[in-house]
């Protein structure tokens, strides 16, 4: 079946197309070049003067795994008032900050998103995470395996094992859990918390293993690089949220000595210690470091005002933040030999100095990092704000007047101590298309996503142009997922099942002998049951596993 | 002006969400507009007019005749007006209610008045579990208002209750007053296992000595408490049929606890309460 989108105004940064009027053709879910004149076209959508981009990709959003479920159980107030009625084609659900899986998929699709990546899949929880994400309809999913606090790796590092074995272990985990990348959360810190350390800076040693976060970071960054996993090591650094942590972040950038690194929710890692309140923005310094280190990419983790919930594997941080819980309840827990988990509900207030400054820091980062290919739009859903605030965030970036208007409403001290006033950059549509589509696809190594060239999957979003970017991006006129029309006028009209993106680095099978002994002694499941089979993964309900090649270096 | 009356055309096959039908939400609506309101019934939705025969013209006073167990969330979040029900009023009756009055001639299901902060609910028959309690995950249950249960209450009555008064004229199930933060729970009949389990503050008044009081309660002996006289007088004054409360004396045996949770709460077992069921 051949489908034509007629008269589209296309933004496809991967192919240098910036608002060119053209026709797009889809054959059986794949983008094809314009056919010969006499070819029969089965269906034509008239999208004259409408803005067409590839489906958006969220590189960092917590949509699956234990912590999201704990957040749901903890917060009936986040669900009872937000009940959604089912229909013959859509499942019922509820939720605002942490919606149920089905509602998550629908809301993402309704904003034109077609792929979402869960950044913190604990290997011990991988089976649950994949099963849950299989229930996130329409969008493709993928996950990064969380390493760096697991007992096995820390033992390897403490025993001064060679990089080769570490690489094999990382590759084995990625294969066994069908991960797409590797993430490290507060390297060593979550484990250190279990040994009663309440903070752990980059060069402080873990009391039990004697390993520093720097060592863990370097080992993992090198493993990911040498195995040829496309997405660089995804780093949630030390000291999240601590005033003065910008120093640590800068040291982290330097620590990897030029290896590729993705620093996630950098907003929470860009704080200085200046001013009367001992809390200031260091976004300028971080942005400068990102600008001058081409091996570094970041996503922002913008804070948006309102009620949300923070869910993180970083127990050290969540335990520190428990006093700020709103409503007043929180959970911190240990998860096997892997890491931990903390859930603290949070209300970001514009009249609160710290929250208002956090909001400024995020925007300062967006506006000062020059290369949109290395900065991605996220709110670290649900930690900075629910993903449903993305359209508003895009408006803040594209519309200086709106930004000024919002700036007038925040805490005056925060406003005074931020340079946001003086930043007059406005993102263009092309830049938005880069940071939400092309750049994440490139960073994740998704060859057929994030663009509209020949051979790409037909994940397409059609927007009605509007001066108000929030309105435009919150309600696409049409959204196609693999060529199927799933959203019309901002409402889901058909539900489909997306793919799982995964990667399969090669490793020496000898590692399994060592791992088996370890599993038999310390784990709750055996090695054979820990590994998720491909058939089992598909049985959860995804349409296919899309395996992305590794190029060992 | 006559009550707006809802009469079921047929029994719903599954739960029917009535949270849209409260006096404050219907105020100012014509009968035609009321009939057009959509109600959720399981996975489907239906018009009020298709589900009920509706008559009357005063939406501040609603009446449900032949109510059934499938009802949920009747009177949810209401702030004023009156709802009268005949039959079984279903689960979550008066949840998060802030004012007004609900009277049931019949019974009600679980979570009766859960999280309510004002107003009053009175049912003549039995109530299910978790009356005036916290819904799963909520940090506190009822924070104000009154609940009167003419019959027996189920388990975990007043779980995490914070303020307000609950009066059960019959018996209460296991763990009555569990995790109470504050407030008053009065059970004229028998309380079962675990009464006051984990309570931090608040008062549980029992008409009869339970089979056993949890070990984490301290027996403080017999006391004469003037506040009981006030409580009984107020109860007697509130309804004619509660007139017999005046005869109750202020003597009680006091148990302080739950010591495992701070121990500032108390269980008061009345020494001379005649148990008289009004039903």
Q: Would you kindly provide a written description of the structure presented here, covering whatever features stand out?
A:
The complex is a heterodimer of chains A (553) and B (279). With 553 residues, chain A is α/β, with parallel strands linked by helices. Chain A has a single domain, classed as TIM Barrel. Chain A is 33% helix and 22% strand. Chain A is built from 19 helices and 26 strands. In chain A, the strands form 5 sheets. In chain A, strands 6, 9, 10, 11, 12, 13, 16, 20, 25 and 26 form a 10-stranded parallel β-sheet that branches. In chain A, helix 8 links the parallel strand 12 and strand 13. The longest helix of chain A has 16 residues. Chain A is globular and about 70 Å long. With 279 residues, chain B is mainly β. Chain B has 2 domains: 67 residues, no CATH class; 198 residues, Glutamate synthase, alpha subunit, C-terminal domain (Pectate Lyase C-like, 3 Solenoid). In chain B, 10% of the residues lie in helices and 32% in strands. Chain B has 4 helices and 17 strands. A 13-stranded mixed β-sheet of chain B has the order 5-1-6-8-9-10-11-12-13-14-17-16-15. A two-stranded parallel ribbon of chain B has the order 2-7. In chain B, strands 3-4 form a two-stranded antiparallel ribbon. In chain B, a hairpin with a 2-residue loop joins strand 3 and strand 4. The radius of gyration of chain B is 19 Å and the shape is elongated. The chains are: A alpha/beta (553), B mainly beta (279). At the A-B interface, loops of A face loops of B.
Largest sheet data of chain A? 10 strands, parallel
Going by CATH, what is the homologous superfamily of the largest domain in chain B?
Glutamate synthase, alpha subunit, C-terminal domain
- Fraction of residues of chain B in helices? under 10%
CATH topology assignment of chain A: TIM Barrel
Architecture of the largest domain in chain B, according to CATH? 3 Solenoid
Question: What coarse outline of chain A follows from CA principal-axis ratios?
Answer: globular
Unreliable spans of chain A: none
Poorly predicted spans of chain B: none
SS class of chain A: alpha/beta
Average pLDDT confidence of chain A is 95
Helical segment tally of chain B? 4
Write down the oligomeric state: heterodimer
Mean pLDDT of chain B: 93
Provide the CATH top-level class of chain A. Alpha Beta
By CATH reckoning, the class of the largest domain in chain B would read Mainly Beta
Q: Can you summarize the main beta sheet of chain B?
A: 13 strands, mixed
- The number of distinct helices of chain A, counting runs of at least 4 residues, comes to 19
Q: How many domains would you count in the coordinates of chain A?
A: 1
């Amino acid at each position: 079946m051949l489908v034509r989108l007629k008269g589209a105004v296309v933004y496809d940064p991967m192919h240098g197309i910036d608002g060119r009027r053209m026709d797009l053709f889809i054959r059986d879910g794949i983008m094809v070049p314009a056919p010969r004149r006499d070819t029969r076209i089965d269906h034509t959508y008239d999208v004259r003067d409408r803005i067409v981009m590839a489906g958006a990709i969220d590189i960092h959003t917590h949509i699956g795994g234990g912590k999201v479920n704990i957040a749901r159980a903890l917060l009936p107030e986040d669900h009872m008032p937000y009940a959604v009625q089912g229909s013959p084609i859509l499942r019922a659900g509820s939720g605002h900050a942490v919606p149920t899986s089905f509602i998550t998929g629908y809301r993402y699709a309704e904003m034109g998103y077609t792929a979402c990546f869960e950044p913190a899949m604990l290997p011990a929880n991988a089976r649950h995470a994949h099963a849950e994400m299989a229930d996130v309809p329409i969008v493709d999913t993928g996950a990064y395996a969380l390493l760096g606090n697991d007992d096995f790796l820390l033992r390897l590092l403490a025993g001064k094992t060679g990089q080769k074995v570490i690489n094999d272990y990382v590759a084995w985990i990625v294969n066994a859990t069908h991960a797409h990348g590797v993430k490290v959360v507060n390297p060593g810190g979550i484990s250190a918390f279990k040994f009663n350390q309440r903070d752990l800076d980059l060069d402080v040693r873990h009391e039990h293993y004697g390993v520093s976060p720097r060592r863990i970071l370097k080992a993992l960054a090198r493993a990911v690089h040498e195995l040829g996993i496309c997405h660089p090591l995804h780093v949630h650094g030390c000291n999240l949220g601590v005033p003065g942590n910008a120093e640590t972040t800068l040291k982290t950038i330097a620590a990897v000595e030029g290896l590729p690194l993705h620093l996630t929710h950098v907003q929470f890692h860009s704080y200085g210690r200046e001013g009367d309140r001992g809390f200031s923005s260091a976004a300028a310094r971080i942005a400068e470091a990102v600008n001058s280190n081409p091996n570094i990419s970041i996503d922002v983790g913008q804070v948006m005002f309102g009620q949300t919930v923070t869910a993180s594997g970083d127990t050290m941080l969540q335990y520190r933040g428990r006093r700020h819980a709103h409503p007043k309840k929180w959970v911190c827990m240990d998860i096997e030999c892997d890491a931990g988990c903390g859930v603290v509900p949070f209300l970001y207030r514009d009249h609160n100095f710290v929250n208002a400054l956090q909001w400024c820091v995020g925007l300062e980062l967006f506006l000062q990092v020059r290369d949109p290919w290395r900065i991605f739009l996220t709110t670290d859903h649900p930690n900075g704000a629910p993903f449903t605030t993305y359209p508003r965030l895009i408006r803040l970036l594209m519309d200086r007047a709106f930004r000024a208007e919002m700036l007038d409403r925040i805490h005056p001290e925060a406003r005074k101590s931020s340079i946001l006033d003086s930043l007059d950059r406005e993102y263009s549509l092309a830049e938005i298309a880069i940071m939400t589509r092309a750049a994440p696809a490139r960073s994740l190594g998704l060859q057929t996503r994030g663009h509209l060239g020949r051979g790409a999957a037909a994940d397409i979003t059609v927007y009605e142009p509007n001066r108000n970017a929030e309105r435009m991006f919150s309600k696409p006129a049409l959204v196609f997922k693999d060529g199927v029309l799933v959203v019309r006028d901002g409402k889901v009209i058909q539900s489909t099942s997306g793919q799982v993106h995964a990667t399969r680095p090669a490793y020496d099978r000898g590692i399994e002998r060592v791992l088996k002994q370890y599993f038999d002694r310390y784990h709750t499941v055996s090695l054979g049951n820990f590994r998720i089979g491909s058939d089992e993964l598909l049985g959860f309900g995804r349409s296919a596993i899309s395996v992305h090649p590794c190029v060992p270096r | 002006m006559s009550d707006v009356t809802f009469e079921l055309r047929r029994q719903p096959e599954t739960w029917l969400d009535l949270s849209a039908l409260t006096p404050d939400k219907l105020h100012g609506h014509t009968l035609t507009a009321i009939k057009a309101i959509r109600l959720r019934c399981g996975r489907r939705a239906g018009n009020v007019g298709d589900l009920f025969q509706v008559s009357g013209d005063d939406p501040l006073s609603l009446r449900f005749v032949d109510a059934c167990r499938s009802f949920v969330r009747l009177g949810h979040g209401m702030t004023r007006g009156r709802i009268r029900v005949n039959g079984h009023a279903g689960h979550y009756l008066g949840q998060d209610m802030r004012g007004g009055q609900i009277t049931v001639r019949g019974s009600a299901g679980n979570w009766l008045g859960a999280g309510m902060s004002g107003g009053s609910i009175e049912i003549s028959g039995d109530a299910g579990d978790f009356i005036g309690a916290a819904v799963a995950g909520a940090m506190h249950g009822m924070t104000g208002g009154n609940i009167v249960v003419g019959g027996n209450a189920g388990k975990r009555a007043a779980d995490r209750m914070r303020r307000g008064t609950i009066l059960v004229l019959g018996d209460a199930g296991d763990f009555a007053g569990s995790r109470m933060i504050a407030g008053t729970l009065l059970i004229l009949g028998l309380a079962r296992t675990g009464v006051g389990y984990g309570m931090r503050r608040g008062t549980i008044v029992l008409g009869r000595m339970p089979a056993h009081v949890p070990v984490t309660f301290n027996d403080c002996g017999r006391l004469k408490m003037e506040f009981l006289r006030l409580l009984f007088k107020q109860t007697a004054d509130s309804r004619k049929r509660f007139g017999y409360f005046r005869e109750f004396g202020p003597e009680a045996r006091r148990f302080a606890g739950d010591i495992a949770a701070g121990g500032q709460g108390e269980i008061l077992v009345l020494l001379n309460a005649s148990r008289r069921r009004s039903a």
